[in-house]
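Researcher: We're teaching a course module on how sequence relates to structure. For the next exercise, students receive a sequence and then see the predicted structure as tokens, so they can try to spot secondary structure elements on their own. Here is the exercise chain.
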Amino acid sequence: MALMDLDDRISWEQAVRILGVSKSSFFRLVKSGRIPGYGNEARCRFYLRSDCRAWLENSRAKKR
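Model: And here is the predicted structure for the students to work with:
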């Protein structure tokens, strides 16, 4: 099991702000596997700031 930097963990609310998308758009990204979610239960889920930033960079590169 890999160790994660606890400072990198964010909630879905924080992820939505970072990505600049709606709640429903964010959860579509999660459901499709484009942004991974971590944790065992929906209530305990968390996301990684680094995953969100990587998705942003990838989506910006595709637009060029």
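Model: If you want an answer key for the exercise: The first strand starts at residue 9 and ends at 10. The radius of gyration is 12 Å.
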